[in-house]
Amino acid sequence: MNKTPLFERHVAMGATMAEFGGWDMPLWYKTGQTAEHKATRENCGLFDICHMGEYIITGKDSFAFWQKILTNDVRAIEDGQAQYNFMLNEKGCVIDDCIVYRFNEEKWMLVVNAGTQDSDFEWLKKNALPDMKLENISAQTCKLDLQGPNAPKLIADIAGREAIEGLKFFRFVDNVDLDGIKVLLSRTGYTGEIGFEIYCDIKETVKLWDLLLARGEKYGIMPAGLGARDTLRLEAGLPLSGHEVRPDVVAAGTPWEFAISYEHDFIGKEPLMAAKGTIFAYAVTVEGKRKPGDHSKVLYKGEEIGVLTSEIMAVSLGMVPAGFIRVNKELAIDEEIELLNEKGKTFKAFVKANPLVKGTSRKKMASML
Amino acid sequence: MANYNIPSELRYSRTHEWVMDLGNKRYRLGITDFAAQHAGDITYVELPETETVIDKDGVDCTIETVKSSEDICNQITGTVTAVNDMLEDSPETVSSDCYGDGWLYEVEAENDEDFSSLMTAEEYEEFLATQED
After folding, report:
1. Do B41 and A289 touch (CB under 8 A)?
2. CB–CB of B43 and A319 under 8 A?
3. Would you call A218 exposed, middle or buried from its count of C-beta atoms within 10 A (0-12, 13-18, 19+)?
4. DSSP classification of residue A59
5. Cα–Cα distance, A70 to A269 (Å, whole number)
6. CATH code of the domain in which B99 resides
7. Which positions ≥6 away from B122 have C-beta within 8 Å?
8. CA angle A120, A123, A125 (to 5 degrees)
9. Residue A28 burial (CB < 10 Å; 0-12/13-18/19+)?
10. A59, A84, A279, B55: least CB-packed within 10 angstroms?
11. Is the omega angle on the peptide bond into residue A5 within 30 degrees of 0, that is, cis?
12. B67, A315: Cβ pair inside 8 Å?
């Protein structure tokens, strides 16, 4: 199993470790998932995300390359801006969700999921255009996510207020100095809270981790594991690769249509358009104290219409069982459905507006400093 | 391997339940330290009702965590004689004191073999070593 440079730190902090996408990762630390979730919503959480993949793409054809393989329209972003995307196969299904970073028209970075990074890279190579260079920098790149309303204060404390005060949602700045460590600071994340995805040389990983934890103490920082990452992302209405978005499910009709622009031609566009009106996805909350179980069937007036794709206890809603469903029928907010698990037990559930929890992610940076 | 508390007087299952011999064919059941650490934050425990007749391979108790739902395998065939009502208000005790106040339910067994066929502490420790790097 792969280990990040922080493996020893996680074990020393008493983390419960588990395999994720071929990596030995912390599920939670001694404090537990609930405390880590709350710390991220109220103060800030620090996540080791070194397992994810990063590629650098350069050359004159790179712009045309993105327009071909990404669902969003990269004409919409400028230098220093990032964009959430899907990569589709020829069937319109999601190979992976990813974020593309534009340094300039001829230099870009793509960040992808851990478990899919090798197959993603093969897909990129297969579809590469003549005048472009594709470089896998995953093994040389550290990625730490600092998320939560106090994250800007902590970064301003280390790098100076001027380093980030003008940084808007989904923008990034390169070569920021964090106490001697050069980092790329991106105002993105996967928790619904304001914060940063921080990239630097893999050799600086432990130093950066220790720095943020030490300086973050007065801002209530807490290291957080993949458990909290999952409850936070689901509450924030974001899909998980392999669950909501999958290589065998067409990406049409999801609450994540913001990742798709039909103004350009891309691989998988035709089957995607053809599937419109046949696939829908919704956030749901479940009555009672029990989660039904992943892959429970979704029933509407007795008829099977889909599947439960993820489930959690929504910590920020007061431990309410919640999840995402994928169905073949359009449903209204607050509409009642039933979830039938593999043991034959049914649970009453309700369609809810996505996201379940609105965090601070889009707040004005200056107001959070 | 991480360190887990494995009291020597208890018996253990491959699905990480412990069973305590209370005498007179009565047994108490709970989850092990290993299971507790891997379960994470427990939010709710669905317990069987007393006087329910249960099968050693059956599931009549489920532990709900923030992350998942964990089925508890009965291990002992017999009749439920007591359940830990305290867990209604403090389900987290199942992990914070898994061998003590976090017990789940008690069974009057049909036989002694179900208990004696479970792993000893030593055997369970060896079993755990095969479960992790």
Report:
1. no
2. yes
3. exposed
4. S
5. 10
6. 2.40.50.100
7. B8
8. 110
9. buried
10. B55
11. no
12. no
Residue B71 lies in a domain: yes
Strands A297-300 and A303-314: antiparallel
Phi, psi (deg, nearest 5) at residue A108: -140, 160
Domain membership of residue B76 (yes or no) is yes
- How far is CA A155 from its chain centroid? 21
pLDDT of residue B108 exceeding 90: yes
For A52, A98, A239, A264, the CA distances from A110, given in Å and listed in that order, are 11, 7, 18, 19
Nearest CA in chain B to A15: B37
Please state, rounded to an integer, the average pLDDT across all residues of chain B.
94
Contact residues, chain B, for A28 at CB < 8 Å = 40-41
Distance from CA of B50 to the nearest CA of A (A): 21
Is residue A164 within 8 A of residue A156, CB to CB? The reply is yes
For A69, A235, A307, B58, the CA distances from A332, given in Å and listed in that order, are: 33, 19, 17, 39
Q: Is B5 domain-assigned? A: no
Hey, are the CB atoms on B67 and A33 less than 8 Å from each other?
yes
Task: Work out the minimum CA distance from B67 to partner chain A, whole angstroms.
Answer: 6
- pLDDT class for B2, splitting at 50, 70, 90? low
What is the count of residue pairs from A and B with beta carbons less than 8 Å apart?
50
The whole-angstrom distance between A244's CA and the closest CA on chain B is: 17
CB contact under 8 A, A291 and B41: no
Amino acid identity for residue A278 in this structure: T
Length of chain B equals 133
Q: How many of the other CB atoms lie within 10 Å of CB of B93?
A: 18
Distance CA B101, CA B113 (A): 26
Ranges of residues in chain A with a pLDDT under 50 are: none
Percent of chain A with pLDDT over 70: 100
Q: What is the pLDDT of residue A106?
A: 97
B4, B34, B41: best to mutate for the A interface, most A CBs within 10 A: B41
**Domain coverage including residue B69:** 11-114
**Is B133 a member of any domain?**
no
- Total domains in chain B come to 1
The confidence score (pLDDT) of residue B3 equals: 81
SS3 of B74-132 = CCCCEEEEEECHHHHCCCCHHHHCCCCCCCCEEEEECCCHHHHCCECHHHHHHHHHCCC
Residue type, A191: T
CA of B68, closest CA in chain A: separation in Å? 7
